[in-house]
Amino acid sequence: MYSKILLLLLVPALLSCSKSTVSTAISSIQANPLTPSQLEEIENFQTELNAFYSNPEESPLDPDKMEAFEKEGGHDFFEANPLFRIEADFKKKANAKYVGFETSTDRIAKYDFYGVAKFKLNGKKYSLNIYQSHRAREMEEYKDHLFLPFTDLTSGDTSYGGGRYVDLSIPNGNKILIDFNKAYNPYCAYSTKYSCPVPPRENRLDLEINAGVKYSSDTH
By the 8 A CB rule, do 183 and 203 touch? Predict the structure, then answer.
């Protein structure tokens, strides 16, 4: 699922598997522990992500980086954290607005500004714009897929400087589940041959999202 969706969002620019142990991080902020099924869901995400990147027929990794990736045991992940599995308030835009996303190349990616998710962490309110890909919505399998690109205070430090993505589904009501434990890197974190949507200014979070995929320039 992950690999197919990401392939829809990214196009070529030419025109840990020893996975991290999934465990609940200790925090000063109280949160309900992740349930066994939620932990399994995150573990499956990590396993699928590593398997996809290790498959030479699908992986966006350049061939000379594939061996090193496998030797390192795949991606490094933050510990699964219940604080970053968020049921946010969601308001759909009455009339979807076209957005031409800047990308890592000269390409403009076509999206609609679909709605806004709002939530609170550590007593502070946050808001994120949610988008829908024109390309994905035309396909029956992905017609309910929504796209959340973001940066946070880990970007350029323990996570990729160009931001990360989270896949979402169109909600039935006024709540939407955002699980940052399943945040992943754009292909551009691994190769310059791809054109990746750049998270907009509105989705720059003034907090550390210590969840999902980590990144080190030394190993990519």
Answer: no
pLDDT of res. 192 = 87
Instruction: Quickly list DSSP for 80-114.
Output: P-GGGEEEEEEEEEEEEEEEEEEBSSS-EEEEEEE
Q: Residue 130's Cα: distance from chain center in Å?
A: 12
Mean pLDDT split into 10-residue runs, the chain, 220 residues: 56 38 39 93 97 92 87 94 97 90 90 96 95 90 94 97 96 96 95 92 96 75
Q: Where are the beta strands (DSSP E) in 13-135?
A: 85-102, 108-121, 124-133
**What pLDDT score was predicted for residue 64?**
83
SS3 187: helix
- Give residue 71's region: left, alpha or beta (phi > 0; psi -120 to 50): alpha
pLDDT at 67: 86
Give this prediction's pTM.
0.86
- Cβ-based neighbour number of residue 19 at 10 Å: 18
Q: Which residues pair with 129 in a beta bridge?
A: 116
- Domain with 113 in it: 2-219
Domain count, the chain: 1
